[in-house]
Structures are given as structure tokens and as C-alpha cells.
Amino acid sequence: MTRLNFISRGWHAFMVVSIFALFSCGSSPESQPKAVEENIVIDDSEAVYVPVASPKKKSFFASIKKQDMEAIEIGSPQSLRQAYNNLHKSVEEGYSDSERTILNIISVMMDVAWPSEKGNMVSPRIINTDQYSGIVDSVRNGIYDLSADSSDFLLSLLPSLVILSSSNMSEYYGKAEESLSKALEFRPDSVIANYVMGVLYLRTGRAEEALKHLNTANGKYSAGTKEILLAIADACFETDNLELALTVGEQLLARNPQDTMILDLCARSAYALGDLDKTESYIVRILLLEPDNADYVLFRARILMQKQDFIRASSLLDVCARKNQTTREYYILRARLQCDWNKNYTSAAETASKALELYPDDLDIMLLAAEMASLTGKSVNGMSAMEIARKALEKDPSNSKANEICISEMYRNGEYQQAYALSSRMVKEQNVQKSVLYTHIDVCLALRRTTEAGNIAGRLYKENPGDEEAQMAYIKVLAASGQGGTANQLIAKLLPDANAKMKSFLYYERSFLQGTEDQILSDLRSSLTANPRNKDSLYRLYQIYYNKKDWRRAQYYLKQVVALDPANSIYVRQNSELDKLLKR
Q: Could you read off the pLDDT of 260-300 as tens digits, one per residue?
């Protein structure tokens, strides 16, 4: 084909199409061409296809101004209020169907996402139901609407709003995430879509991802919205950014001083930071608003026990018992109070036994029962401490507390090699608890592994020389490794300012460094003066008098040891031996 022929045919086609269009304009509807495409004959051998565009589908909200639709898609409290004010009419009959629906959409967004900002918005009734208004009804009734086709921003967003109003929506989280992702493709800067996605990620344990969306939501369109800031504080708490969680919570509390959700967040954050006084102040404020809330009564009791205010803690537990509010937390605290304050290990074990009957698969209750069984040497619900601890380990194989109880039982029974094998594995774990390290030091000393014990104790003391546990471990290692002079110097330095428990320990350890029996006995008596329940000092006095064949004095001290540690079979056997010796 020559260039001239091509141009000629192109012009010919243009003229034929133009003439066809002119004739079509004046024809009746019946004579209009029905096909989307028409074949226009140019000559006997060629045809030109002229595509005619399909008519564009008209949006249901075409009559709503673009700026109002954009404000609704942004979805911040401020932009929704602006759109509402623009669309609201004083006469109910003056609304079109699309206006009725869009005002109901604004209303459900404010109700569900921003209840603190709702104000006095009133939405007109729906006369003719459409797809959007149907989804709005589903959200209000707590139903996830699966019929939406996600063909626009609102159809993608609206069904997922229901997860804000109902916590029992986990089966729809996958679908919600898919729909919200689609909504954010339509409008990446949408405040409401980013907020709902952030909440969804928080619910599914993805706090880091939640923070990204929540920070976007808290941007230029909606800085300082209560619901967003509360979610940000929760996400900070979940990501261990506790200081920021508390800071955000306190900022919110200044504006909402009686909001129990914010008070709860502040209390949890302060508690995680170890600030018991601040925690208690928030819990007291909650109880002033909700005096019969057993969860917070027990929370306060836990705080008081940690502050060693056992009398007030006991009173709060009595209140719960009188009101029959005996939850799992109640049993844990009651057993702990009986053990730590009343020193009534038998009652503590009975409480733990009752708790284990009611909550047989609860890990915390298992650990409580194992601990009480270990302290009393008696079975709880027919199981020994070791059996309960191993049952707990079936549920959580890496549970540090359960492993510590196993090590303690092995150590008590003289199974030092087994205890060492388990504790050696534990000390190699990341973020190991200090209690595990101190237990391992004792096991090492029992096996005369003084170098290994010294390395750990020395490091702990160097890291925190003012910590009592670190001081005690370091002194034990110094004494066991023949460094009596250094141990004596440290004991002399610590004694003047030591509390009763620490003073008792220091005198006991110094007794090993003394040269005469009189000095040894003097230090052991001073140890018991400071703390009459020091089992180590009592047992050492038993050994001294046993070696002197003073059976009566030996049993006097050993009986006190047995009373303090009735589970120890060695002490029980030794006491039986003394009974026989005294009968001769």
C-alpha cells in the first residue's frame, strides 16, 4: 500500500463515519444502531471498526458535592462533622435518597469510631433501602456484612466498622483486613480506615504494624482524637514502650479525668514500670467510680501485698469473699497472703488445692499449687510439687517458674547433678530471670563448682552492688572459694545499715569465717536474734550440738528447721534419728 492510498482510505473512512453520525442524530430510537461496534464498508476488500464507548455507570452519590464526599472518606471527626453540617437540612422531607444514606453513613462512623465526638448528630430515616444503607444497618446490629463488593471506598470500609463495636469478630478479621487494605488503596490518607486497620492489627497481636496506621490516623486531619490516642497508647504498651504509653494516657486523662478505660491504661502502664504508688492512685480513682468492680479490688489488693501492706490487702480479700467474688485472682492472692504474711503454709496449700479444683488447666494456678506443695512438702490434689510442675511444663515447656520449682525439688532431695543440668540450660537462655541465676549459683556451690558460681555472682554484684540478692550471692561465693578476708570486709561494710533479714544472713555467713567455737556460736545467735526463722542458722546450730552429742539441744534447733521446711526428707529423717537417740 502506497502512502497516498493509505491517506486516501483514511479520509474516506472519516467522511463515511461523519455522514453516518449526522444521519443517526436525526433518526428515531428504533432506527438507532443497536450494536456497540459497527462495520463501516470502505470498499469490497476492507472494513474499519469504530468502537463506541459504553455509558459510564453513574455513582449513587453523584449528587453529593465532591468536597463533602472527600471529607467523608477522610473520616476524621472534624471532616465528618463538616460534611454533616453541609448536608444537614432542617426539613425531613427535603432529603434525596443519596443524602439520607450518606448522612446515616456519617452517623454510624461517628457512633462506632468516634463516640467521644458524636455530639448531637441526627440522621434522617431511610425510605428506599440501598446497598450502602443495608451495610449501615448490619454495622448497627453487630453483623459483619459479607455482601459488599468493595467496588468503592465506602463499600470497602463500612463492613469492617463492626469490629470496633464488637470484640467477638475474630472469624472475620481476615476478610476485614482484605477490605480495609482495599479501602486504603482508594484513600491512603483516610483517618478512619487507618484507625480501624490499627485496631485490627492490635486485636491480632501485631502492635508494631498497628502503630504505623495509628500514627497515620493521628496526622494532619485528626491530631489528638481520644480514640486514636488511646489505641496508640495501647500499642505502645504492647510494644513495651511503657513510658510513652503512660505519657499518652496521662495526657488523655487530663481531658477525660473520669474515663475508666484511660485510668485502666495508666494503671497498667504504671504497674509495668514498677511505680506501685502511682498504680494504686489510678486504681483508687477507678474504684470511686466503680466500687463493686472485683477486678480492681483484687488489683489493689495485689499492689498492697507488693507494698507489704498485708492488713489492708487482707481486708480487701475479705470483702471479695463476702460478696462471693472469688475468682482465680482471688485464690492466687489469698494463698500468697497466707504464705507470705500468715506463714500458714498448710492453709495456703488448701487454698491452692481449691483453686486447682476450680481451674485445673490454668497455668498460673498450676504454678501456685506446685509452689505451695513445694513449701509444705505435701501433695496438692494428690500430686507432688514435681508432678504439678511437670504438668505445667507440658502446657508451657519453657516456663521459667515451673523449671525453677523442679530445680528446687531436685536440690532439696540432693539431686544436684540433675538440678545442675536443668539450671545450666536455663542460664543460657536470652533474657534469663535473675532468680534463675541465683538458683544456679546455689547449685554450683553444692557441687563445689566455685569458679562458675563466682563468675556469675561477681558479674551480678558488679552490675548492681546495692542489690541485696547480689550481695548475698557474692558473699556466699567468696566464703566458699576461700576468700574469707574479702568476705569479712564486705560483711563489716554492710552490717551497720542492714535490715533484719540481711543482718541475719551476714552474721550466719560470718560464722564460717570465725576462728573459735564461741565466736561461731555468738554469730549464729546474733543471726537468730535478727531473724528467728533463719533456717540456715538453726540447722548449723543443730550440726554443732549434734557433733558435741548434745542431742537435746540439737533436736531443739532441728525441730524448728523441720517446722520451717517440713517437705525436706533429710531433716525429717534426722529428727527421727534424734528421737531414737534421746530414748536410749
A: 999 999 999 999 999 999 999 999 999 999 998 999 999 99
Q: HEC string of 140-169?
A: HCCCCCCCCCCCCHHHHHHHHHHHHHCCCC
Is 318 within 8 Å of 340 (Cβ atoms)?
no
Evaluate if pTM is beyond 0.90: no
* Environment class of 566 (CB within 10 Å of its CB; exposed 0-12, middle 13-18, buried 19+): middle
Average pLDDT over residues 39-53: 45
| Average pLDDT estimate for 333-340 | 93
For residue 40, give the 3-state DSSP assignment.
strand
Q: From the CB of residue 96, how many other CB atoms can be counted at a distance below 10 Å?
A: 10
For residue 413 the three cell numbers come to 532431695
Radius of gyration of the chain (CA): 38
Pairwise CA distance, residues 493 & 515, whole Å: 20
Total number of residues shown for the chain: 584
Kindly report the backbone phi and psi dihedral angles of residue 380, in degrees, each rounded to the nearest multiple of 5, phi listed first.
Answer: -120, 120
Residue 293: predicted pLDDT: 92
Element (H, E) at 18: helix 3-25
Q: What is the mean pLDDT of residues 215-242?
A: 91
What is the SS3 assignment for 49? Answer: strand
